């Protein structure tokens, strides 16, 4: 494979949506000049055979246009899927942030409601104490009235 790479055409032809080589650069379509594979298309690192540039030795046969088209479609779908997943992830992160804010708001409201309910309980307790005192005073008033009536009747009938 290395001998075919060395004797391959040094002029690359870029295709749409070529796969990425190991350098994360789009691979070039080249044609073999070897006796074993004359004219056979392959994908290679675009930095290969370029004066002094480091390269990654990426190599893949691209025997037919169908393979190239299939690879292009696969890369396109992969990129679209990745973009879609990134968008979904971003949407989910935004929703999580919104939900966390809502949870914080609910906790604040719960604290306010708890405080209000405690105040209501205290006021209810005060009202119950006042009501009990009022009942006692009514009972005493009725008893005094009854005593006065009894005394009046006793004195009037005598």
Question: What's a concise summary of this model?
Answer:
With 158 residues, the chain is mainly alpha-helical.
Describe the model.
The chain is mainly alpha-helical and 158 residues long. The chain has a domain at 2-63. Helices cover 62% and strands 7% of the residues. Strands 1-2-3 form a three-stranded antiparallel sheet, with no helix packed on it. The relative contact order is 0.08. The chain crosses the membrane at residues 140-157. It holds the Pfam family Zn_ribbon_GRF. InterPro entries: Znf_GRF. Residues 68-102 form a coiled coil.
Radius of gyration: 46 Å
Which regions contain 5 or more consecutive residues with pLDDT less than 50? 1-16
The neighbouring-strand order within the major sheet is 1-2-3
- What class do helices, strands and sheet pairing give? mainly alpha
Tell me what portion of residues adopts beta-strand conformation.
5-15%
Order of helices and strands: HEEEH
What level of helicity do the residues show? Answer: 55-70%
- Largest pleated sheet: 3 strands, antiparallel
Q: Regarding quaternary structure, how should these chains be classified?
A: single chain
Measured distance between first and last alpha carbons: 141 Å
Label the overall shape: rod-shaped
How would you state the average pLDDT, rounded?
A: 84
How many helices? The count is 2
Question: How many distinct beta strands?
Answer: 3
């Amino acid at each position: 494979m290395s001998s075919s790479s060395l004797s391959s055409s040094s002029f690359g032809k870029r295709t749409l949506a070529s796969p990425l080589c190991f350098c994360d650069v789009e691979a070039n379509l080249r044609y073999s000049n070897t006796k074993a594979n004359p004219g056979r298309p392959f994908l290679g690192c675009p930095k290969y055979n370029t004066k002094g540039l480091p390269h990654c030795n990426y190599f893949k046969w691209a025997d037919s246009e169908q393979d190239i088209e299939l690879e292009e479609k696969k890369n396109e779908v992969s990129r679209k899927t990745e973009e879609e997943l990134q968008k979904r992830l971003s949407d989910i992160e935004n929703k999580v942030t919104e939900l966390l804010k809502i949870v914080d708001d609910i906790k604040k409201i719960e604290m306010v409601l708890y405080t209000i309910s405690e105040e209501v309980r205290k006021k209810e307790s005060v009202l119950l104490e006042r009501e009990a005192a009022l009942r006692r005073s009514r009972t005493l008033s009725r008893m005094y009235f009854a005593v006065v009536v009894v005394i009046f009747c006793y004195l009037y009938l005598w």
